[in-house]
Design a protein that fits this description.
Blueprint: H1 2-36, H2 41-52, H3 55-67, H4 70-95, E1 98-99, H5 103-124, E2 127-128, H6 130-152, H7 156-170, H8 177-209, H9 213-225, H10 227-238, H11 242-267, E3 270-271, H12 274-278, H13 280-296, E4 300-301, H14 303-321
Antiparallel strand pairs: 1-4, 2-3
Length: about 325
């Protein structure tokens, strides 16, 4: 029994490795394909890179929906978004305080609050059907269109950050389109395999621990699928590229709700646990508003704010594992 549990823990860890590796291959290959097609660095950063780092959340949620493990689908998205704010942004700010005073981030922050509020409101209906899924996917298209319009008006400094960051991912590489497309395909295969392994292992661990699948989704699965965002954010801030860090987190959180939940609902409609509406969803809204306040006030993530966000995430995780709200 203990051996079986350990094997499943190792399987989940291996699945996270597949997800991270698949996401990296997808981002690298996709970035080079986009550059070959003449797409600008900032557009690549706001789309391919931001959504590529969200691919683990997307795949884990969609695979869970396909298998009928809808609690993991919702739990992973809610938990990942909270982890991106409390864990990733909190840890990044605590390690390297940075400025975020540019209009693009402020607009995306307000859009994220609106989308999170709409996600909360939809959840109160108790069911995400195909109609709701289509609405979320259409909102994702709208967000992409707005973001690209906003990006064109961004200061030169912000655009330079995206150019430098994107160039780092394609340096010393020739423009072999066939190879890059193969890299994208391989990344997608690794993502699917990783999603399958993580979901199956998480279902087993939830049953053995005597907790709901949503708890495993909000904690273990969410933290594991947020690893690409953490790596990207810390590297970007250490290189003085705050726009990449915050833009990556905002894009990821929006993509998780609009893309992962939207596509999952279209594939396999699902309901939402009442207990999540009492605790996890309100906490998601609180963390989202807190991040937005940080973005809109002094335009800087201080070390104190980072520590506060990180402490809030630890308290949230402890509360979920203790069964608070259930």
């Amino acid at each position: 029994m203990i051996m079986e549990t350990l094997l499943n823990l190792l399987a989940v860890a291996f699945g996270f490795g597949l997800l991270a590796g698949g996401a990296d291959m997808l981002v690298r290959g996709g970035s080079r394909v986009a550059r070959t097609l003449g797409i600008g660095p900032m557009v690549i950063g706001l789309t391919v890179v931001a959504y590529g780092t969200s691919a683990p959340e997307m795949m884990a949620s969609v695979v869970a929906a396909v298998y009928g493990n809808h609690e993991i689908t919702v739990g992973n998205v809610v938990g990942s978004n909270i982890a991106n704010i409390g864990l990733v942004l909190g840890l990044t700010g605590a390690l390297v305080p940075f400025n975020v005073s540019f209009a693009l981030i402020r607009k995306e922050s307000l859009f994220m609050v609106a989308v999170t509020g709409a996600f909360f409101a939809m959840a109160f209906w108790g069911h995400f059907g195909r109609a709701q899924g289509v609405i979320l996917l259409l909102l994702l298209v709208l967000f992409n269109m707005l973001t690209l319009q906003w990006a064109r008006r961004s200061p030169g400094k912000v655009q330079k950050e995206y150019e430098d960051f994107e160039a780092e991912k394609v340096q010393d590489e020739d423009g072999a389109l066939g190879r890059d497309l193969a890299l994208v395909a391989a990344g997608c295969l690794l993502l699917f395999a990783g999603g399958h392994v993580v979901v199956k292992g998480a279902v087993f661990l939830a049953a053995k621990a005597g907790v709901s699948e949503s708890v495993i989704g909000v904690t273990l699965v969410a933290m594991g699928t947020s690893l690409p965002e953490m790596v990207t954010s810390i590297v970007a801030v250490r290189r003085g590229e705050a726009a990449i860090c915050v833009g990556n987190l905002l894009g990821s959180n929006l993509f998780n709700i609009l893309g992962a939940i939207g596509l999952s609902a279209v594939i396999s409609p699902f309901g939402v646990e009442a207990s999540m509406l009492r605790f996890e969803f309100p906490m998601l809204l609180i963390f989202t508003v807190a991040m937005t306040l940080v973005m809109l006030t002094r335009g800087r993530v201080t070390r104190g704010e980072g520590i506060l966000l990180l402490a809030g995430y630890v308290a949230f995780t402890v509360a979920v594992l203790a069964g608070f709200g259930s």
